[in-house]
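Hi support team,

I'm opening this ticket because the web form for multi-chain structure prediction keeps timing out on my end. I have pasted the exact lines I submitted so you can reproduce it. The total is 430 residues across two entries, so I didn't expect it to be a heavy job. Is there a limit I'm missing, or should I split the entries? Thanks in advance, R.K.
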Amino acid sequence: MTHVLDVLEERGFIEAKTHEQELADWLAEQPRSCYIGFDPTASSLHIGSLVPIMALAHMQRCGHRPIALVGGGTGLVGDPSGKTEMRQILTAETVGANAEALKAQLARFIDFSADRALLVNNADWLVSLGYIPFLRDIGRHFSVNRMIKAESYRMRLESDEGLSFIEFNYMLLQAYDFLKLVDRYDCHLQMGGSDQWGNIVAGIDLVRKMRQKTAFGVTFPLITTASGAKMGKTAAGAVWLDAARTSAYAYYQYWVNCDDADLVRFLALYTFLPMEEIRRIAGLHDADLNLAKTVLAFETTQIVHGRQAAIEALDAAGSMFGRRSLPQDLLPSSTIPRTGGQGAGESVPTTELGADLFTEGLPFFKLMQITGLSNSGGAARRLIRQGGAYLNGERVTVDEKIITLADFAEEELLLRAGKKHFHRVRLTKG
RNA sequence: GGUGGGGUUCCCGAGCGGUCAAAGGGAACAGACUGUAAAUCUGUCGGCGAUGCCUUCGGAGGUUCAAAUCCUCCCCCCACCA
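Hello R.K., no limit was hit. The queue was backed up. Here is the completed structure from your submission:
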């Protein structure tokens, strides 16, 4: 079986690891358990969490048992790592509900059946902790002198914001989690983002001190786009994995619009396509890169939203931006449909409006506002005046232009804002 | 608890009685150029069925013809001291 460390290394997942040789041997010996913690701060994961999720998926594909740890308990405290300001503290109910939602999303990537993977919640052991016993048993193993040298704490100690005591304890709790995972699931490997290094190492130390056992840590690099932005941050907010928050079409578009310079890296990190095929992409130029971006978008959309939604997004994009067929030898392992397509599927955002609105007629800018293509009437007027608004493919430059039933073809009409934002309006009776 | 400095439109940050919907930068959006990329240049960037009207400068009052700017009280943040 392929060694999972080789896979992760080759695909760009690894920033740092502890006990390099020992870890490799340990993983090669037999199937192992490994875990990654996920914050239940929102009811959906977003693209920023994709790297850890894919890492767990690779673990499973290589025969190991991934454990997703939902921070139901630590979520009540707040991790200062990588944050420049104090996090909002959530209620237990919210955290619990979010944890449930996260499992459903993780199930897209990881097979939880028959205990091939586990989802555990650290609220199970953290919430009932007694303060004095915890301080006595766990706290005594931690040196404050050392803790304040950790990057995550130092950053906050030096900031104006300061570091609250509750957050200062976060490292102990996460270390305690690791200890629990060792005890309960024989899980000796924790992975996480590079900002988790300090917390992971604290856990490894605690396991050694209290159990005289070896534990391992692996961290992932912080993935940023070529322009330096964090993954998944757009003007509209985060790109979520939940279709109700970010539609499959929008999700697909996020990937198609990635920077040229990111393409190969992203294919390696965010798809399961073989590396030898991905490496060949590096030779592509100009417009051909867009074809490879299509594959990237299709593959990752398929993983998150399913094949049907991915095909619809592909078709919708094809009908609006034009479609070129994909050569068979471009990333041949991809199951993307290489030709054809059925026009704009259902993935294009659609608003249904009553026909009566258009008997009198509606000003064009108002329609742009109603459909959400513009945030306000003023924004709609600006857009139109600047030549960025289209009705059925034709640029409209008069913001007061009255739209009537005559503008509809087969009860439908297609609006466009700028180059990329399409919206369909469909008539309803009444 | 004491002393000092602050809270401005998405973010940073000017403004310190009228010329302020508020400089400048960033982000964002549109146009040109392109490949649904990047870079660059140009324009826009509170709301309104709109050459005018309405609501903004931590909150509530007050002074004034006029307040982001002055006064009072309150809330929050920061620094130093304790």
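A quick check on our side: The first strand of chain A starts at residue 16 and ends at 17. Let us know if the file doesn't open in your viewer.
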